[in-house]
UniProtKB/TrEMBL annotation, chains A, B:
CDD domains per the UniProt record, alphabetical: Nitrilotriacetate_monoxgenase (cd01095)
Signal peptide from the UniProt entry: none
Domain spans labelled Luciferase-like: 25-388
Matching InterPro entries: Diverse_substr_monoxygenases, Luciferase-like_dom, Luciferase-like_sf, NTA_MOA
NCBIfam families noted in UniProt: FMN_nitrolo (TIGR03860)
UniProt xrefs under SUPFAM superfamilies: Bacterial luciferase-like (SSF51679)
Family to which this protein belongs: Belongs to the NtaA/SnaA/DszA monooxygenase family.
Keywords for the protein's UniProt record, in alphabetical order: Flavoprotein, FMN, Monooxygenase, Oxidoreductase
Protein name stated in the entry: LLM class flavin-dependent oxidoreductase
Gene3D superfamilies: Luciferase-like domain
Coiled-coil parts of chain: none
Pfam families: Bac_luciferase (PF00296)
Length: 459, 459
C-alpha cells in the first residue's frame, strides 16, 4: 500500500443468521446456533483472518417485534465480544449500548474491562436507543423524546470519559518495598453533576490500553449529527445513493472541523450488504431467492411501525401510495432518519408494496449491492475515492456464506488494488482505524500547568 | 464416593493478588497482572483441574478506600467470567452484582448471556451493595437504607426471574418451511410493576441452559437472611467459630423450610482462608510473613470505616478499647454483620490493635486457618459433618501459590476421604451443586391448567 494512501476500514456487522430478514430460512444458515458462542467465534475468526478492522453488534434492551417470523432477540453484545476476544488476537470489538437505559458507572466499567481483556480492541457504538418500546422495560411511562435522550447522552459521554481518565497512566506504582500500590494524587474523582445524571467517581479500574474505547455513533438527525461531530471517532450510516452519502460525509467532516477537531479522526462508515455471485445474474438470483423467503407479514409489521400507519390492508402488488411516505417529518422522531431513506426509495422508484418490502428485506435501508466480486469492489472503491465513505460496515445477507464470499473474493481484490491491508500493522482498534489515543485530561492539565512554571519552582 | 454421601462444595473466591491485604507485596504474587485476562484464566483452569465447583468474584460499583496501600479496583466480574468461560469447560462462574445499582432488564440479559455462553455455568451473587459510597456514583444523595435496598432487591428478583421465564423452553421453533421462527404464545411479557421498579418485558433472549443462573446471596442481617431463605440457592457467609456457623446454618435451613422450600436446595458456604505449610509452624510463619507486610495505615482505615470511629490515634500495641466495638448495633447498617464478627473477636480475645489488624488482614473477618493440609482438611470435614457448612468459599491468602497449595495438597485428601468429587458428574453449575433446574412458571401454569381438564377438551 503506498504510504500516502488513505486506509479503507471494513467492519463485519454481525446480525443473527444474517442481515436479510429471511436469512434464518435459507438452508445455508445456522439459526439453531444463535445462542451458542462457537457461532460468533467462528465468524469473528474468519473476519480476523481477512484482516478486517472490527466486528460489530447492534443492540437494544427490548424484544423487537416480529419474533414469530424472524430470529430477533439474541445474546448481549459485550459478553459475546469478551468471548470473541478470548478467541482472537487483533480484530476490533464494537458493541452497541444505550446512554438512555444504562448508568454511566456500570457501562464505563464494562467497556473498560473489555478494553483491558482484549488488549485495547474495544469500541462503543453510542446510541440513545431507537426502539420506543424500551422505556417500559425500565419503569418509564414513555421513551424520552430525542432531544432529552441526546441531552442525557452528552452528559453520559462527559461522565464516562471522566471515569476513563480517572486513573492516569502512571497511577499504578506497585512499589512493594514502600508498600504503595498506587499514587492517590494520580487518581481523580469524576466529579460530574449534570441535569440528567451525576457521578462522583473515582473510577475503580486502571487506565485501559486505548485510554478509552473507540467512540462510534449512528445517529443521523441534526441533533444526532451534532452529537457525532463532537464525540464520534467513527460513524455508522445508511445511504442508498452515493450523492446522499457524499453530502452526509461532507456535512459531518465540516461539523467536526467547526468544533476544532481533525476531520480525519472521524471515520464515516456506511452499511453495505453484498450479494455475491460469479456473475451478476447469479448474485441477483441469490437476492431473489432470499426475498422470496421473506414473510410479508413480517416486513409489513416493520414498515407499519416505521410509517406509523397500519399497512396490513394494502394490496401487495399495487404501487405504494405516495402519501404514506410523504410526511417524513411527522413520524416518531427516533426512526426518522431511516424513515427518510425509505421515503426516498418510494419517491424515486414508485415500487409496489411487495417490491418495497423486498428492497428493505435485505438490510433495512442500507445499501444492497448484488454483483460479482469485481462489481462489489468497484462500488466500495468508488464510494471511498469519491468522498462518500472512509470504509464500510459489511452486512452479509446470510451467514456464514455471505461472509465467506466477501472475504474470499472481495477482500483480495481490494488488497490487490492497494486499498486494504494485507496484514495488521498495530494491535489495537485505534491502530487499525488510524485513530489517536486520547490524552488523559488530568495528565494534560498538569503538563500545561508545569510548562507554565519555571522547573525549579516545582522541585 | 458412597451414593448417599452429601457432596462437599468448594468454590474458588478470586480476589486481586490474594485475600490477604498484603498479598500484593509478597514476592510470590503477580500484582502487575491484575488487569490481564491470562492471570484469571490460569487460576480458573487450575481450579477446574481440581474439579472445584465454581470461581467467584465479589464486586461493588465504587473504588474502595485504601488504593494507596492495596490493590483495590479491578476488572468487571461478568466480562472476566465470560473470558474464563471461553477457556474452561466445566467450572461454574459466579459474579456478584447489585440490585441497588443495576436495572433488572440489563442485568437479566448479562446473566442469561453468560449462562448461554458457558453452557449453563452462571451464578449470580445477589448483593444490595455494602459500600455506602456507591450511591454518589449513581446520582443519589445517599446510599438507600438496608430496608429499602432489600425491598428493591425483592422486586428485582421477581422481575429478573420473570424475564428468565419469559421464553418457555419450546418457544423457539426454527420452522423454516412454515416461516415460523418462534411461537409467540410461548413468549410472555414480564408484566411486573412494583414500588421500586417495573418491567414490561418480554425478554429478548431464549431460555438459558440452567433456566436461570444459580442464585447466591451473602447478607447476614435478619432481613438479609429472610431474603436468602426465600431466593438463595447458595449462601456465602463469614464465621470465626464452628458454633456460630452451626447456628447460622440451622437458622437458614429452618427459615427455608418455613417458606416451603427443601433445605437441601440451599447450600451454606462459609469462607475459609487457608495458610498451608508442611508443618503447622511453617504455615504460621507464612501467615506471620504476610501480616508483617501489611501497612497499618491501610488496616486502620478499613477498621475505622467499619467502626464508624477514627482509630488512627490509638496505640498499636495497647489492647483495643472494648467500648469501640460495644455498640455493634449503632454502626452503619450495611456493614453490621461483618462488624459483629469483629466485635466478637475483640470481646473474646482482647487483642492489641496491631494483633486485631493482623487477625483481619487475612480475610476481613472470614475464618483463617494455618496448618498442614491434613489439618485444613480436618477443619473442612469437621464443619461439613457437624452441620456448619455444605462447603466452602476458598479464599487463598496469596495467588497463585495459595491456590496451588490447596488444590495440590488439600483437595486430594478430601477426595481420598470420599468427601469431594474426583470427576465432574454433570456439566452445569446446578449439576455440580446438586441444585434443581427451576420450573418455568408459564409452562408449569399451563401444565396445571391442562391437568385439570379432560384431555379431549384440549384437542
Ligand atoms: C449501522 C447502524 C446501526 C445502528 N444500530 C443501532 C442499535 O444497535 N441500536 C439502536 O438503538 N439504534 C441503532 N441505530 C440507530 C441510531 O442509533 C439512531 O437511533 C437512528 O439512526 C436515528 O438517528 P437520529 O435519532 O439521530 O435521527 C443504528 C443506526 C445505524 C446506521
Ligand atoms: C463471602 C461474601 C462476599 C460478599 N461479597 C460482597 C460483594 O461482592 N459486594 C457487596 O456489596 N457485598 C458483599 N458482601 C456483603 C453482603 O452482601 C452484605 O452486604 C453483608 O454481608 C451485610 O449483610 P446485611 O446487610 O444483610 O447485614 C459479601 C459478603 C460475604 C459473606
Amino acid at each position: 500500500m503506498p504510504a500516502n494512501a488513505r486506509t479503507l476500514t471494513l467492519n463485519l456487522f454481525l446480525n443473527h443468521a444474517g442481515h436479510h430478514e429471511a436469512a434464518w430460512r435459507h438452508p445455508s444458515t445456522q439459526p439453531d446456533a444463535l445462542f451458542t458462542p462457537d457461532y460468533y467465534v467462528r465468524l469473528a475468526r474468519r473476519a480476523e483472518a481477512a484482516k478486517l478492522d472490527a466486528v460489530f453488534f447492534a443492540d437494544g434492551p427490548v424484544l423487537h417485534g416480529g419474533v414469530e417470523h424472524n430470529a430477533v432477540g439474541g445474546l448481549e453484545p459485550l459478553l459475546t465480544l469478551a468471548t470473541i476476544a478470548a478467541h482472537t488476537e487483533r480484530i476490533g470489538l464494537i458493541a452497541t449500548a444505550s446512554t438512555t437505559y444504562y448508568e454511566p458507572y456500570n457501562l464505563a466499567r464494562l467497556f473498560a474491562t473489555l478494553d483491558h481483556l482484549s488488549g485495547g480492541r474495544a469500541g462503543w457504538n453510542v446510541v440513545t436507543t431507537s426502539s420506543a418500546a424500551a422505556g417500559a422495560n425500565f419503569g418509564l411511562d414513555a421513551h424520552p423524546d430525542p432531544e432529552v435522550r441526546y441531552a442525557r447522552a452528552e452528559e453520559f459521554l462527559e461522565a464516562t470519559t471522566r471515569l476513563w481518565d480517572s486513573w492516569e497512566a502512571d497511577a499504578v506504582l506497585v512499589d512493594r518495598a514502600a508498600g504503595r500500590y498506587a499514587d492517590p494524587s494520580r487518581i481523580h474523582p469524576a466529579a460530574f453533576a449534570g441535569e440528567h445524571l451525576s457521578v462522583a467517581g473515582p473510577f475503580n479500574a486502571a487506565r485501559t490500553p486505548q485510554g478509552r474505547p473507540v467512540l462510534v455513533q449512528a445517529g443521523a438527525s441534526n441533533t444526532g449529527r451534532e452529537f457525532a461531530a463532537r464525540w464520534a471517532e467513527a460513524i455508522f450510516t445508511a445511504h442508498q445513493r452515493i450523492e446522499d452519502a457524499q453530502a452526509f460525509y461532507a456535512d459531518i467532516k465540516s461539523r467536526a472541523l467547526d468544533l476544532g477537531r481533525d476531520p480525519e479522526q472521524v471515520k464515516i462508515l456506511p452499511g453495505i450488504s453484498p450479494f455475491l455471485g460469479s456473475t451478476e445474474a447469479e448474485a441477483r438470483a441469490l437476492e431473489e431467492e432470499l426475498n422470496e423467503l421473506s414473510v410479508p407479514a413480517y416486513g409489513l409489521q416493520q414498515l407499519s411501525g416505521q410509517a406509523g400507519v397500519d399497512l396490513s390492508g394494502l394490496d401487495l402488488d399495487a404501487p405504494v401510495p405516495l402519501e404514506i411516505f410523504a410526511g417524513a417529518g411527522d413520524v416518531t422522531d427516533n426512526a426518522r432518519s431511516r424513515f427518510q431513506v425509505v421515503a426516498g426509495i418510494v419517491q424515486r422508484e414508485r415500487p409496489t408494496l411487495r417490491r418495497l418490502l423486498h428492497r428493505l428485506a435485505g438490510a433495512r435501508g442500507h445499501r444492497v449491492v448484488a454483483g460479482t466480486p469485481e462489481q462489489v469492489a468497484d462500488t466500495i472503491e468508488d464510494w471511498f475515492v469519491a468522498g462518500a465513505a472512509d470504509g464500510f460496515n459489511v452486512m452479509p445477507p446470510a451467514l456464514p456464506a455471505g461472509l465467506d464470499a466477501f472475504v474470499d473474493h472481495v477482500v483480495p481484490i481490494l488488497q490487490a488494488r492497494g486499498l486494504f491491508r494485507t496484514e495488521y500493522v498495530g494491535t489495537t482498534l485505534r491502530d487499525h482505524l488510524g485513530l489517536d489515543v486520547p490524552e488523559n485530561r488530568y495528565t494534560a492539565a498538569r503538563a500545561a500547568d508545569g510548562a507554565g512554571r519555571p522547573a525549579l519552582a516545582q522541585a
